[in-house]
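Bug report

Summary: structure tokens for Aminopyrimidine aminohydrolase differ between web form and batch submission.
Environment: batch mode, default settings.
Steps: 1) Submit the sequence below via batch. 2) Compare with the web form result.

Sequence submitted:
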Amino acid sequence: MTESRLSQQLREEADAFWEGSFRHPFIQEVAKGTLPLDTFAFYVTQDAYYLSVFAQVQALAGAKAGTFSETKRWAEHVQKTYEVEAELHERFFKRLNLKKEDVFRPAPTAFAYTRHLLTVGYTGGVIEIIAAMLPCYWLYSEIGKRLADSKPGVDVYQDWIKAYGLSEFEKLVQEQITALDSLAETSSRETIQRVRNHFLISSRYEYMFWEMAYRKETWPLPISTN
């Protein structure tokens, strides 16, 4: 019997966290159309902040890539993150009456999650960076598939579900999974252990991100704007 791919092993190890995300009230209420719009608006601002950092980490992967073609591909990922997500959030911001200046005010969990990604981006190799980012790609793709038949009756929720169920998004996910498994073949045992840690930490943060949004998490003390 052949050993399962690293990506499959990681997905199995993280299953409890991912199932927690699937069952989280935020996701369930989006599917039913019962999530309060102000809660989704809070999520959108936090997600916009998160994705601005996500693109930076993609760029760090490109800087560490082994070939020019890989660097070019990572640059294309950065561009795609900007174009697709910016366009998506632009529509959400208009519908939810949000202001641009609201984007870069991260809640504690959003800030902590992005610091995790940046730390891996600066200190780890490409396979570690992929491992830290992959739960975001992969989990959202699975959510898009699971909610594909949902009829929330709220346009902004229907658009959000549709965006992550598109075949184009699935291709991006599969590209990252393939890259992870390919790099794993020549990685040391120590590197693979770090990869596992990064993947599981990010999987936990994905669950925590829903919880953060659902509770509209705030800092215990005001943050100075000076």
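Above is the batch result. After comparison, the two runs are identical; trailing whitespace caused the diff. The CA atoms of residues 69 and 188 lie 24 Å apart. Residues 6-27+35-215 form a domain with the Heme Oxygenase; Chain A fold (CATH 1.20.910.10).
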